[in-house]
Amino acid sequence: MSYLVLALKWRPKNFDEIVGQAHVVSVLKNAILKDRLAHAYIFAGPRGVGKTTTARVLAKALNCKNSPTVTPCGICPSCKEIARGNSLDVLEIDGASNRGIDEIRALRENVKFAPVAGKYKIYIIDEVHQITNDGFNALLKTLEEPPDFVKFIFATTHPHKVPPTILSRCQRLDFRRIPVKEIVAQLKRISESEKINIEDGVLFTIAKASDGSLRDAESILDQLVSFGEGKISRQDAISVLGLVEEEALFEIADKIAAKDAQGTLDVLDRILSQGKDAEVFLNNLIEHFRNLMITKISAKDLQLLDLPFETIDKLAQQARAFTLEEIFASFNVLTNALELSRRLDLQRIPLEISLVKLIHGKKPVSLPQPNANININSSKNDQSSDGQKKDIAPVSDNKVIEEARSGGKTEISLEALKDSWSAIIEAVSKTKIYVGNYLGEGVIHSVESGVVTVAFPQNCSLHKELLEKKENRALIERIIKDISGVSLRVNFVLNKDYVKEEKPPEYKTTLEFFNGRLVKQEDE
Description:
Layout: H1 6-9, H2 22-33, E1 40-44, H3 51-63, H4 77-84, E2 90-94, H5 101-110, E3 121-126, H6 133-144, E4 150-156, H7 164-167, E5 171-174, H8 180-194, H9 200-209, H10 214-227, H11 234-241, H12 246-257, H13 261-273, H14 278-297, H15 309-319, H16 324-344, H17 348-361, E6 373-374, E7 381-383, E8 389-391, E9 395-396, H18 397-407, H19 414-431, H20 433-440, E10 443-448, E11 451-456, H21 461-467, H22 470-484, E12 489-494, H23 508-523
Parallel strand pairs: 1-4, 1-5, 2-3, 3-4, 11-12
Antiparallel strand pairs: 6-9, 7-8, 10-11
Helix pairs in contact: 3-4, 5-6, 8-9, 9-10, 9-11, 10-11, 12-13, 13-17, 14-15, 14-16, 16-17, 16-20, 18-22, 19-20, 19-22
């Protein structure tokens, strides 16, 4: 007998064996027990979570010799035929290859004929969203008033593509992604039964990589059994799946916390030289910072982290090195790097710049000293009250602030405000580092009628939304007044023509290269 893959060998044969869909199983069992079965169901959900399998189990429950029953025997001719897929009363149809009006017309004609051996004639249509609009229209009348002995079960990964006229005639059951812990438990049962020698940590790695699909997890386990010799280790899983080692993520986060730019780039170089994909690493690092956030917020309840206990302990220790604001700023920097790498078809350079930017974002900032001089003049000459030009010397912070408080000054030139802008950003960062980081990504566009307009690139809508929050806007306006001595309201806009004027000198060449590539792509 040929080898049977684990996904088929361990396919559930009854309701009790279905993993991770207790809510669906409960509805179907109660419908059978109370004799309240719908004439049509639509099973919606991601791939590999048990939609078609559940449809087969329901078909067994309806056509078993003991039917209707919530515990099909599995040994009667009907149950065996359904399990093998050759039952004359249970027809499994692929929506992708039977999607036209002719195929649906044929189905509509066959519906009239009574079942051969079972109680019901059951149509299971997989990927039903692939049927054409004409095909759906041909199915409508039959679906609304089918013969008493006919049941329809539709399965789809894209329920939004199914016409509302079809959805309204079906009872919809939504299948969820299977939690990591439930996948791990099932993989452990399979490993013990199949006598697979595997480390417990590998099961978590497989479950995380499967993204909620038990079928994918079982296929990965099958692949690892073929790949490894002897005991399957976590390193085997990392090699087969192309994942970034957990230790590398902790190491690079430690380097960021320690403000070690050189060490961070060295770790990145080591990871990429091993053939790891930069985008995969970036996604893993974003998830790592998400885990740090969850650890800081839910220190006493870490059910949101589907991770081994030893990993959660390491996260709790590392989370102490970051504030929530720094973690939020990290999300922003890393997601921007991910978007930039996709736009430029470059991966390594945006990643390197983002990591160094994270480190510089953790540098302590300080408010300007009370006796520091800030030149708020637009030029060496300015207009006097009588219209004549005159020289104005730099004015100290204290004097400017006193002027603002007494006179309520609301006018300042664009050049003067730009001269004070870096000090304003530093002062904002001292209070809220992520607000300062976001504000630093914009440029002053204009100052008119007591309003300063700050412009951001089109892809920085998140910056705009967060800075427009009442408390953040108030903080920025207060610090502008304290430093420049002028009471201004702040307005934030998105500008597709925005090109940032000020660039860190050490990255000037690389950033100019990026700007050139971006402009070139937009022109094309």
